[in-house]
Design a protein that fits this description.
Number of helices: 9
Shape: globular
Strand order of the largest sheet: 6-5-4-3-2-1-7-8
Largest sheet: 8 strands, mixed
Mean pLDDT: 93
Low-confidence stretches: none
CATH class of the domain at 7-121 and 207-299: Alpha Beta
Structural class: alpha/beta
Number of strands: 8
Radius of gyration: 19 Å
CATH architecture of the domain at 7-121 and 207-299: Alpha-Beta Barrel
Strand content: 5-15%
Length: 305
């Protein structure tokens, strides 16, 4: 790897695939201004049963244990239940990335019990420990809705009795994420003190300059400033442990991408642009990662590992 080249000009290759991330589509009960997937209640990109069936059959045959589901709000796609029931039979370790508020809606309120039954690792978005910051980013009432669901998950054993509950932090606007250790300490102390809430780990992410967040930056005339900040704080040491090195991201049509951010902009894995997931022999899978300027967001501070 050449030290003096900009990130997007580097040669970075995948290692052994350890995680398969399935994006079920961009339908979501929220419409967040920072969303790289441009999720909303009217999201049109949603996985059908035929595609889900082919992905499931391929996953069952693979010796890859870690499977993640994301969206949009993955709960709004009925294939989430289909995947969880089908993969749990084979001892796969399953993770769902949720926005929490979806779990208060009547049609999806069964999911906490469903997650507990199948011992799902829940990764939940909570962009701030402050109501005004969270609601400004995600919509009025989102913070207290999230707090209610977190309390319910705690009561069920998540974050307190063996069931994994992690939180995801992403900063408001074009601010950088703080140091992970300090931020996690602040989150844990504040949520415990004011709400009696416990969780396992905090995952801080910088906002990726794509999708709605890019549009937001451009409108404010802040895009160039944000990119300059990301490049200035580029941490070369993060490259060996970036999530894209050991992950494949599958879109709602079955096409493969290096990560969910590349998926959002339609950038497929090099050499596999016209292949569906179930058509790929992962035992002989070697690929250069498709890098771009947006990848700087995953190299700030400790990186995206």
């Amino acid at each position: 790897m050449e030290q003096d080249l900009p990130l997007e000009s580097q040669k970075l290759y995948k290692t052994k695939i350890e995680v398969v991330q399935i994006n079920l589509g961009n339908r979501c009960n929220q419409t967040c201004y920072h969303c790289h997937m441009e999720g909303s209640p009217s999201g049109k990109r949603n996985m059908d049963r035929s595609t889900a069936q082919k992905i499931l059959e391929a996953l069952i045959k693979l010796n890859i244990q870690n499977i993640e589901f994301t969206g949009g709000s993955p709960e709004m796609n009925p294939n989430l239940k289909f995947f969880i029931k089908g993969l749990s039979k084979y001892g796969k370790k399953l993770t769902v990335r949720t926005n929490l508020t979806i779990l208060e809606l009547q049609d999806y309120s069964f999911y906490p019990d469903f997650y507990k039954k199948y011992k799902i690792h829940v990764v939940a978005s909570l962009p701030s420990i402050f109501e005004e910051v969270t609601d400004r980013q995600r919509g009025k009432g989102v913070f207290h809705s999230s707090i209610r669901i977190l309390k319910k998950l705690n009561e069920m054993g998540y974050g307190t009795n063996g069931l994994l509950l992690d939180l995801v932090f992403n900063p408001a606007g074009d601010n950088p994420p703080a140091d992970q250790t300090l931020l996690e300490k602040e989150y844990k102390e504040s949520l415990k003190k004011y709400y009696g809430i416990f969780f396992n780990n905090l995952i801080p992410l910088a906002n990726s300059p794509i999708g709605r967040f890019k549009d937001f930056l451009v409108r404010l005339g802040r895009y160039d400033h944000y990119m300059e900040f990301l490049k200035k704080n580029y941490n070369q040491k993060t490259l060996d442990r970036l999530m894209c090195k050991s992950l494949i991201s599958i879109d709602d049509g079955g096409k493969v991408h290096d990560c969910d951010f590349n998926l959002a902009i339609g950038r497929r894995i090099k050499g596999y642009e016209n292949k569906k997931f179930w058509e790929i022999d992962l035992s002989r899978f070697v690929s250069e990662i498709a890098l771009g300027e947006h990848c700087y967001a995953c190299t700030v501070n400790q990186g995206s590992h």
